[in-house]
Design brief:
By secondary structure, the chain is mainly α. It has 6 helices and 6 strands, in the order ααββαααββββα. The N and C termini lie far apart (about 90 Å). InterPro entries: RepSA.
Length: about 250
Amino acid sequence: MTNPHDRSTPRAVRMAQPLAREVVEEIAKQYGVCIRPVPLRRQDILTGQVEVIDVPCGATLDSRCPPCAKRNRQLRRAQCREGWHLESEPVNTPDEADDYQRHLVELRADAQAWRDEVEKAGGDTTDLDAAIEDLDEEINRAGMRGNVLGRTSGKRSRSTKRRQDAPDLPKRQMTRATLGRTFTGLDGKVYRPSMFVTLTLPSYGRVLEGAPLDPDRYDYARAARDALHFSKLVDRFVQNLRPSPGPRTPTN
């Protein structure tokens, strides 16, 4: 093996040797790691500890960072599958039932009729109830959703009560639409912006593969409490994002 720092080594031999930096980039590309990370300084507001972390650059061009560009392509494909690119509201039309699905529903209706007759006669309906339950499961496995009897339980009502000391939040009329709002730029191009939001809770203690490194210092109670109320945190965050309707005019 030749020493690259030995000036007696012929230039052609030294130039044929791979650059260490390029080898690192090739390995990073192989494992899907960003080759142009952005260093950010993070400080713990409780302990004052400062550390530098590398954040992926998020490039969208292969010429800048192939791993990040690949992740962005996968993200855009997922968004297209979910309908982010649509210009009109999607129309969801259920498929026509096939012969087997119709046969199951007819058999379910016959079983229900037999059960009702046995019940009127005062007989035991245990076996028929079990058969009907099996038919309901088979109906769902066959690719049908819902229940043949419709809603069998009461409608769930969500409490809208708020604390008396909480300020009133601005309200906007809800529209039955799934498409985002569009904006027209000065050049006439229409944009439909989108945003991903990450809500990060405080740390409960260092973990490794899901297990606390120091179980005695890990805050289990706060972790459980935050897990229970995380949905309320997201709901409150969305409510606070609503634009204000403007100053209110006082009335007598």
